[in-house]
Amino acid sequence: MVTARVVGYAYPWDVLGDPAFVSRVRALGVTEVALAASYHATRAATPLHPEHLVVEAREAALYRPVRQRAWAGHRLVPLAADWVPGDDPFGAATVRLRAAGISVTAWIVLAHATHLGTAHPDVAVRNHRGDCYPYALCPANPEVRQYAATLAAEAVRGVPVDGVSLEACGQLGIAHNGRHEKTAGVFPPAAQRALSVCCCGYCTADWIRRGQDPDQVAERLSAAVGGVLAGTYGADAPMAELVGDRVAEIVLATRRDFAAALRADVLAAVHRHAPSARITLHGRADPWATSPDVAVDADTVRPAAATTDPATSADRTATVDRTAIDDRIGGADQAATGDRTGGDRAGGVPMVDAVLTACWPTTAASVEALAHTRSVLPDEVALGAYLTVLPPADPARVVDHAGALLGAGATELHLYHLGLAPPSGQQQLAEIVRRCRTDESADDSEPDPTDADPTELGPSL
Predict the structure, then answer these.
(1) pTM to 2 decimals?
(2) SS3 state at 189
(3) For 132-160, how does the pLDDT look when each residue is reduced to its tens digit (9 = 90+)?
């Protein structure tokens, strides 16, 4: 009997063109796949695929048709994935998996698109020195919220999905595995938190609305980073110690409220096209967390209060002084943002069914972070542990790590990654799934996940 829900993660190119993929998934004991419907740029290994060993996904893309009708008038438009055959690789892979009896969750990466932040720097996160993080789209910008909601809607439009997994459903910070990244290990956690405070025109305008001078915030952030690097402050000093209680409270409230607005619009968009889909939100119980795991607490995952007034609910939190915004961004003419209400919210924003917390390092700290997240969530919201058999996981400890996460309160295991893992990793994935079983008999054998039988497949696309 499986006592924990198990979800394996994959890209469309893992499924398409590999006649053995489905039988490998079955051999693992996995019956649900989270399949990337939109994803950031990556260079992915495909060690078990018969046609290629590496896929170069050059930019963030939508793995569905990019319909002119849906994106007309938008300044922020996703790219089509021309490195995968066909104009709807997610749809084709979904059909193949579901035909084989495997449930599909649409894995949607939202406010993370380097090509958009590069082409339109005004929509990207900026630190207190004015450095632009082009990979990070700021939810305070109404165009970003419209982009995210449209992206989510188009990801699930017209294709049967059983669930949705929302990654980067909020602001990213300085931590990012970018091209030839050279920032890792330079900035201690306290400095990273300060460098992840967005100081774009929309965020600073909201600080003005709350009665806070943005120049004072920038000065305190600059002193904080310098103090942490110099050793004046501890490496993990809290933000209140670095910038003062009032400044910390205001900048966090701005981030939280705009993230709530983005999340509400995205959930409403998903609900319109996939009303029965189970919603999973990548997050953790750290108020200063930045994407891909957003900050979550009990209020984050509850539905918004019922309302028929689009000026209330999440949109109310995102209302800022337009004059202040124009002053901060130089009066630039902003593109029309369309309907920001996310449709009829009379019934409230759909509830998040599960929170997914990344636990990739096979350490006690990962287990403690997951347990803390469990402690702040309502009982009716499930908690998933997102773990990998790839670095930084220790191969000798990853199976026991999965058991520790289950013991700390995880009711779901989300496995990264079905396509990236080599044969040794596939064996570890299979062992992790077995760890979820409570009544395995001594003679209950599992097939070898690397020894697939193509005759077990559903229709090939």
Answers:
(1) 0.87
(2) helix
(3) 999 999 999 999 999 999 999 999 999 99
pLDDT, mean of residues 275-297: 94
Quick: pLDDT tens for 193-228.
999 999 999 999 999 999 999 999 999 999 999 999
Q: Quote the strand ranges of 216-298, DSSP E.
A: 278-284, 294-295
Q: In whole angstroms, give the CA distance from residue 23 to residue 85.
A: 22
With b for 16 or more beta-carbon neighbours within 10 A and e for fewer, the 197-213 pattern comes to bbbbbbbbbbbbeeebe
- Side-chain-side CA neighbours of residue 69 (13 Å): 3
For the cut 80, the answer to whether the pLDDT of residue 249 exceeds it is yes
Question: Which of these, 213, 51, 186, lies nearest to 128 by C-alpha position?
Answer: 213
Q: Which two three-digit tokens encode residue 22? A: 């489905």
What the block records as the tokens of 330 is: 């130089």
Give me 260's structure tokens: 């709530």
Residues 6+ apart with CB under 8 A from 299: none
Picking from 53, 36, 33, 31, the residue whose alpha carbon sits closest to that of residue 44 is 53
